[in-house]
Amino acid sequence: MTAQAPDQNVVEEEWDYLIVLDACRYDFFAELYDEYFDGSLEKRRSPGSATPEWAAKTFTDHADVTYLSANPFINSLGIPLSELKWGASCEYEWAAADHIGEVVDLWQDDWDDDLGAVVPEAVTAAARERLDEDRDDDGMVVHYLQPHAPYLRRGRGRKLERIRGGVLEPDEEPADAGRDWPVVDSLRRRVERRLGESQMAMALGMLVELNLGSVLDVGNRGLRETIEQYYEENLRLAMEAAADLATDLDGRVVVTSDHGEAFGEHDVWEHHVETHIPALVDVPWLVLD
């Protein structure tokens, strides 16, 4: 039996800069990291299987850090996760502004409207700007959105747009609420032949992010093979940008993740709160040389 990885404890660990790659699985990272980083890699067990759970269980008291966040769930607005209408799916009465010294809202300031995401290069640029400022904190967290969907070369972030809109305007319906996605619907029967009904909603949640050519790839090659390829592409983009930033960082630098991503393991796709399967809670902990 494989031993369980030690717990990830961000607050108790020593670091000057913590680079968080959102939704980064340990196994994919382990295969690729030495193309971008030099360091000592360990597997850690995240306290959460989605960003809201990870944040609420990680920053339980008050951490005097600067947190550059490309993820809308970690924001400076003081809205408890339990009050967000779209995406949080939890009862955590946690708000980042109550537990983190300073949150920089990259998800708002550096949002790409065409992609429905914050691209890795924008996060790196924002972090570099902060390096030139006088700061009085115990460290900096740089939270990249990738490899989390949307897959930047394959579609756009329709679900993230909903989440972001729900943070900015909690009581408003998103513009695409109730909209049908005819391309996705046309592939429903083909995908259903491969997946059980219980997995269908989760799988379709991935398909709505894709452009037409990518959806056709799914129909021709299968969902898992296609999504894993796109996920790796996103991960490489994030690692390249993070490695570029790391060259400017002095002190102890750690690369980790908030949670992983599931590709059908245990009949789970994507990531969901309190779903503690290895694909979602096994994350990297890389201390850079």
Automatic annotation (TrEMBL):
Cross-referenced InterPro entries, in alphabetical order?
A: Alkaline_phosphatase_core_sf
The superkingdom listed in its UniProt entry is Archaea
Q: This protein is called what?
A: PglZ domain-containing protein
